[in-house]
Amino acid sequence: MEFETETVESGNPAKAKINFKTGEVEFEGSEQFVSNQLAAIDAIAEYMALLITNDYKDDSDSIEEEEMAAVAEEEEEKLVIAGEQDLDMPDNFGEWFHGFRDNVNDLDKALLTAYYEQKQSPENDFKTSAVNQSLQEHGIKLSNPSSSLKRLAAKKLLFQTRKVGKLKYMRVSADGVKYLKTLRS
């Protein structure tokens, strides 16, 4: 983002140019104009530092966070009704995975793995990379695990709980838990 302004003081052109990406500040013009701009340089530097350190939050980010929190709270209530506690979680993934039917498809495998990873997490959510890694470690081949998780989210079997930079954290929804129960062998 770049900000540029030009003024004409008593016939002398003046110019202030600020490049927020590179942190460059440039002033041209009369001595009075430059000194006035330099007096405000601290405020400009603070604003630029705020942008660079990413402490600046867009209103849409806070709205998105509030929406994710509301969905998570609503899903917690639904999970009690869905009887999530009925899904016993063994200590290892192999036991968990083999407690389900043999004819599960790729989406089901992704959901089973996502739920297991979620329950292993202290925050009770998972990252796509954790699901990918778990599938690979256990020799389970899916054509595109990330795509499978996106499709599960579109079916409302997963939902996003938080976002850190570009990294999204997700959780299995109450509908996802109900569906997992139908896959039991």
From TrEMBL:
Superkingdom of the organism of origin: Bacteria
Protein name stated in the entry: Uncharacterized protein
Species, as recorded: Vasconcelosia minhoensis LEGE 07310
